[in-house]
Design goal:
The protein has 14 helices and no strands. By secondary structure, the protein is mainly α. It is a multi-pass membrane protein.
């Protein structure tokens, strides 16, 4: 037996062990999703009493009950409210964070370093620390129980994480491109929109994906600002389902959870290629 054959066996065994370990980790991570899907088809008594993954009998009425809505509000109204808030947050973060990132990454102005450091420091500030002052401001403006408190801050570049992400991406772009644009007569705004912004597309899509997921799953902030059931989102409707019918609504609640999860999965699958590119790419092709 040659030396090459002897060395191949440990390598193959290592690869098999690595693949088995990855498969085991995948099963552990997918188990909660499988449990959610299975529980959404269980009768109410099996949800609490049984620990089996598969239901004893399929209860398709859970989905029909979930599709009827909550508190006389249709599922389509709840879905539309969630899409409106998430879509507005995505648009606000992409526009404002890209403009702020361009200023920090490309422009020269006084106190740029201290302002950038202050912006980075806000990442460590808990969201609950600013919630009360923000609520007081929006209450004085008469915007409580509207969607503006959930959307308007996104247009003010308040998400320091996304500003930092786009800044790091823009710093990897060659400055020669903007210098060539200035020679052709482009100012800062035209250079931003026609040169830098198209190359920053992977970072912008990464920002959009995370913003959509975080806003869609946000419960606490929406609970603080929204009172009218007609303005509720799917996230708030899940809690309202339990409040309205107590433990007997566990089956429909899990069915509504599956329905609420579908837009996130579809949005992620549609843009996952750009997510990887935004994390690892340099912004240039070829």
């Amino acid at each position: 037996m040659t030396v090459t054959a002897l060395t191949r066996k440990p390598v193959r065994r290592g690869r098999i062990a690595l693949h088995l370990g990855c498969l085991a980790a995948l099963l552990v991570m997918l188990y909660p999703l499988a449990w959610l899907l299975a529980t959404s088809l269980k009768p109410a008594d099996e949800v609490i009493a049984s620990l089996d993954l598969l239901p004893g009998r399929l209860e398709w009425s859970n989905y029909s009950t979930a599709l009827d809505g909550v508190n006389e509000v249709s599922i389509w109204r709840l879905l539309g409210n969630s899409l409106l808030i998430a879509g507005g947050a995505v648009l606000g973060n992409v526009v404002s964070c890209s403009l702020a990132a361009y200023a920090f990454a490309r422009l020269r102005f006084r106190l740029r370093g201290p302002l950038f450091a202050f912006m980075i420091a806000t990442i460590m500030l808990p969201h609950h620390a600013v919630l009360i002052p923000q609520y007081i401001i929006f209450n004085q403006l008469g915007l409580v129980n509207t969607y503006w408190p959930l959307i308007l801050p996104k247009f003010l570049a308040t998400e320091a994480f996304f500003v930092f992400l786009i800044v790091q991406f823009m710093r990897g772009l060659p400055r020669e491109l903007e210098e060539a644009a200035r020679i052709d007569g482009c100012g800062p705004f035209r250079s931003f929109f026609q040169v830098v912004l198209p190359l920053t597309r992977p970072a912008l899509i990464t920002t959009a994906i995370f913003t959509f997921i975080w806003t869609w799953n946000d419960f606490f902030t929406q609970l603080i600002y929204l009172f009218d059931p007609d303005k509720f989102t799917l996230t708030l409707a899940l809690r309202s389902f339990v409040d309205a019918s107590s433990t007997s609504a566990f089956g429909p609640m899990f069915a509504l959870s599956v329905i609420a999860l579908l837009p996130i999965v579809l949005f992620f699958l549609a843009f996952q290629r750009f997510l990887v590119e935004g994390m690892a790419g340099s912004g240039l092709k070829g």
